[in-house]
């Protein structure tokens, strides 16, 4: 029987590992199962040697956005295509256009890379939803800012929907690696409405593809960690040691922001995108969850996000947390909250982000390098308990990446004298103080 039990346990562990690998391989996110970046090409008209096409990029990810310096989209032409002209974006390299004498194309590269334009470009270079430096909000934060588009005139290609072949080998940087793109698929032509809504126009040809994100493609280590504390236990559960890796510690962390190496930040930024404050966890971001108070019908949590990177400001950041009591979230201060409901009536996952011009910018490491909120949650008296880590989150994500949690067996625990019925934190503190005083008086006699 013991051998059978061991075999069952081994089979279970192998199954879990297999499912984990598969889930990462297909970049499936249980908190955002439909999250993806969709790229659509709409051929608007034919030209003597090609076509004019509008490319639309839509970020359907609920809580993962594209930060500065923005997206880069690349592909491989199927034939000998060239880009005659572009509006709303530009190719990063012109390539070898020496065979052209009079009319020089915008790009002759077989594998062009395209980036968004900066906000201050002239009007004649602009296009709808362009010129935002490639920065795109997440769909959950602001759908209107989750779209980017540009237009290009393609030459040396087919001139009908029977002769045009979509590009291949698409890739998307957002702004670094992490995205895997599917092959382009020809779909029914898109239909659009005129401004007055009384006329529709149809594209000559449309193809589309999706790009999905996997954290494993970015780094083998997490990018954030979680620490825990509570009013009923003086011990703080820190982030796990080396939660985000400890390789070459002396080369990428400093103890003092006034360190002489910080004087030339531009030079440092070219060598390494991060310059971290030296900590045991070595993470650029730490999320601290503190159980602040326990009332008769409510309990209170304080969440603090701290930036340990001296060279990085986080704009439009997002925090995703999973906790079974979010279905009774009564109040949130300083942050915006949106539920992420994926299991019918169950609401155990929520997205938090900063209020515009108030807390949507997480400054670089230093005195201003943190943002915080307080949550007031109503109790379910039939299920509520502070025992066995119930008051702490199951998972936390920062900017779409899962944070490293401490081991459950070192979570802050209740004192042995805790009552089964919940009481206020002040009453519990008073009781503990009186108990300690009685012990002291007894020992004196």
TrEMBL record:
Entry keyword set? Glycoprotein, GPI-anchor, Lipoprotein, Membrane, Signal
Q: Where is the signal peptide?
A: 1-27
User: GO cellular component annotations, sorted alphabetically?
Assistant: plasma membrane; side of membrane
Membrane topology qualifier: Lipid-anchor; GPI-anchor
Q: What is its main location?
A: membrane
List the InterPro entries hit by this protein, alphabetically. COB_C (IPR056900), COBRA_pln (IPR006918)
Annotated GO biological processes are: cellulose microfibril organization; plant-type cell wall cellulose biosynthetic process
Locations listed in the record? Cell membrane
Tell me the Pfam families matching this sequence: COB_C (PF25079), COBRA (PF04833)
Q: Which family does it belong to?
A: Belongs to the COBRA family.
Report the protein name in the record.
Answer: COBRA-like protein
Please tell me the species this chain comes from: Prunus avium (Cherry)
Q: What is the lineage of its organism?
A: Eukaryota, Viridiplantae, Streptophyta, Embryophyta, Tracheophyta
């Amino acid at each position: 029987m013991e051998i059978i039990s061991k075999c069952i346990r081994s089979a279970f562990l192998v199954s879990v590992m297999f499912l984990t690998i598969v889930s990462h391989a297909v970049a499936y996110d249980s908190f955002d199962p439909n999250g993806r970046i969709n790229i659509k090409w709409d051929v608007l008209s034919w030209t003597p040697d090609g076509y004019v096409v509008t490319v639309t990029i839509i970020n359907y990810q609920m809580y993962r956005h594209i930060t500065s310096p923005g997206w880069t989209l690349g592909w491989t032409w199927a034939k000998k295509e060239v880009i005659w002209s572009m509006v709303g974006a530009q190719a990063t390299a012109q390539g070898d256009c020496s065979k052209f004498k009079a009319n020089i194309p915008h790009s002759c590269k077989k594998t062009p890379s395209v980036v968004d334009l900066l906000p201050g470009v002239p009007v004649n270079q602009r296009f709808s939803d362009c010129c935002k430096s490639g920065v795109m909000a997440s769909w959950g934060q602001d759908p209107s800012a989750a779209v980017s588009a540009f237009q290009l005139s393609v030459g040396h290609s087919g001139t009908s929907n029977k002769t045009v072949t979509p590009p291949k080998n698409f890739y998307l940087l957002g702004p670094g690696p992490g995205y895997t793109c599917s092959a382009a698929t020809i779909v029914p032509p898109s239909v659009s409405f005129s401004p007055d809504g009384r006329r529709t126009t149809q594209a000559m040809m449309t193809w589309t593809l999706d790009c999905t994100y996997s954290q494993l493609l970015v780094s083998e280590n997490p990018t954030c960690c979680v620490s825990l504390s509570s009013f009923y236990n003086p011990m703080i559960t820190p982030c796990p040691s080396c939660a985000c890796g400890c390789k070459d510690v002396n080369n990428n962390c400093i103890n003092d922001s006034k360190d002489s190496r910080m004087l030339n930040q531009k030079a440092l930024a070219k060598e390494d995108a991060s310059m971290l404050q030296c900590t045991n966890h070595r993470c650029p971001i730490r999320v601290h969850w503190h159980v602040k108070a326990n009332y008769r019908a409510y309990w209170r949590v304080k969440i603090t996000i701290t930036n340990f990177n001296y060279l990085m400001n986080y704009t439009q950041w997002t925090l995703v947390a999973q906790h079974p009591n979010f279905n009774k979230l009564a109040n949130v201060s300083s942050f915006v909250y949106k539920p992420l409901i994926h299991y019918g009536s169950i609401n155990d996952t929520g997205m938090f982000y900063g209020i515009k011009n108030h807390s949507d910018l997480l400054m670089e490491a230093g005195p201003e390098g943190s943002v915080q909120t307080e949550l007031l949650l109503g109790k379910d008296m039939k299920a509520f308990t502070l025992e066995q880590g119930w008051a702490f989150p199951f998972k936390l994500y920062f900017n779409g990446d899962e944070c490293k949690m401490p081991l459950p067996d070192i979570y802050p625990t209740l004192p042995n004298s805790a009552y089964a019925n919940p009481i206020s934190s002040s009453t519990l503190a008073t009781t503990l103080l009186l108990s300690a005083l009685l012990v002291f008086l007894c020992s004196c006699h």
